[in-house]
Every structure is written in structure tokens, then in C-alpha cells.
Amino acid sequence: MTVNVARHGSPGPDDEEYARELGEDLADSIETLPRTPRNFSLAMNESLSCVNAWLAVNPDGSQLETWEAVVTAMQVHSAAFAAASATEGSGEYRINHEVHTIPATGPQYYANAGNWLTAFWLAIVCRDQARMTQLCEIPLDVLRASGAEGDEYVHHWVDALQTYWLERPGLVEKLTLAIQTSHPDVATIAPRDLLQNILYQPISLFHRFLVKDHEAFNQALLEAVQAHKAYWTATEKREGSVEGYLALGPLAIACLAVDAGFEIDVETPYLPGELLRRAWLGEFPT
Predict the structure, then answer these.
(1) What residue segments make up the domains of the chain, in order of their start?
(2) Could you give the CA distance from residue 175 to residue 182 in angstroms, rounded to a whole number?
(3) Under a CB-based contact definition with an 8 Å cutoff, are residues 127 and 278 in contact?
(4) What is the pTM of this model?
(5) Predicted confidence (pLDDT) per residue in 69-94, tens digit
(6) Long-range CB contacts (within 8 A, 24+) of 4-8
(7) Residues 18, 22, 27, 30, Cα dihedral to 10°
């Protein structure tokens, strides 16, 4: 039986224009990257805002502009980590329909484990296996060198995902460690409501995905979406933000499940159907 979860908020009359303006700002930031690659931090944030702004007016992801925003966000995030994993030379990166030559940056504060997860989720949603592999080949030491302060479970979680995708040994042990160290009594840096409602949910989902328990996966997916909604409606400030319109981590794990033949029984704008079903795949070079 399909379960529907309504999304909080509703589009206003100026929301599409707002999304277009964000896209223009992002395009300007992208153009600066060959000269000022540390602007990756700004471009990463702007790209996610652009995705959520388009989803405000296009909840199912059925418009080309929404897909372009998701792809651009993936390209920006992946390029940021590629540049951070090198200390000399430059690389060519396709971002926003153009190829940009961007210098290596070495480790940067924004190239941290938390943002790596975002980059990996975006690559999964876009079904870009080459970028998924590139991200998984980035050593954990590069992420640690960002200097970002955070709970240690995040690095264990990244390690588990890299191990899964690259088919390295030790996946069960690494995922178990990620689960154990993400317990609220152990992970004390992230706010508890953020940890329980947002950050932990993809870990739980991934475990259900690995054991191929379709019923338990759908139940965990429903719980993840409900937790996401609870977090983003807990305060008036959060509820008024477009940033909560996409449950990116759960969407990414659900995409893995769909591609593995799972039937998804949860329908909600938090998991845009056209992105989940890879409807736009191959629309343009990425």
C-alpha cells in the first residue's frame, strides 16, 4: 500500500522568479572558480539553495530547470572535492553546461566529510557512477585535513559508503561502527534533533537496503521522511525556509533501492518522483 506524506509549505507567486535569480547568482559564482577556486564554498551553498527553490514550485521534479539545478549542484560539489584532492596543476570540470579549467586547491574547510556526503547523494540522484567512483576514491585524510569540527561517526559513515561502492572488504564492520558512533550518547557535537531526524536517517535506510528487506526499507523510508518533516516544521524559521523541501539523503538511498529493483511505497514531494525514477537521465551531457 502506498503511503503519501504531504510537504510543508506552498509556493508563492514570486517563487519561480526567485529560483531564476538564484540560478543567475550561482552562474556568476561558477564563472569565478577558474580565478578564485575557494569560491567553491559559496557555489556549493548557492547550488543547494537553487535546487530547493526550484522544488518549491516544481515538487515532483518534472521541469527541466529543476533537473538542471540538481545536475549543476552535483557538478559543483564533485568538482570542489576533485580540486581539493590535488595540490598542484588544474583540472577540467563540466559545470552548468560549460567546461571550466580550475586550479587544484588542496584540502579546504568546505571539502569536509559532511559536504562529501552531500556530493555523494547528488551523484547518486543523478546516477553519475563516474563521479560516485571519483568521490569514493578521495582519501579520508583529505576530508580530515579540512579541519572541520564534527562527530567522528561521519568519517566512519563515509568510509562505509566508499567501501560499499568500491567493493572493498570490511563493509559490515565499518557500517556497524558508523551506527554505533552515531548514537546520541556518542555523537554530541551535532544538535540532537538534527542528528536523529536528518543525519542518522540515511544510515538506517542504507542498512535496510543492504539486507534487502523491502518491507523494512519502506518502513524506514517513511520514518525518515516523517522525521525530515518534523525537523523542518519544528520552528517557524525552519518552516519558512525552502531548504527543507528536499530529503536529499533519503532520496539518494531510495534511488539506490529503485535501481536495485525495490518497489517504493512512499510518495512525497520530499522525494521528487521524477528524480527518484531517473526520468531525466541522459537529457543533456553532465
Answers:
(1) 11-276
(2) 11
(3) yes
(4) 0.97
(5) 999 999 999 999 999 999 999 999 99
(6) 4/267, 4/268, 5/222, 5/225, 5/226, 5/229, 5/266, 5/267, 5/268, 5/270, 6/268, 6/269, 7/59, 7/229, 7/245, 7/268, 7/269, 7/270, 8/229, 8/232, 8/233, 8/239, 8/244
(7) 180
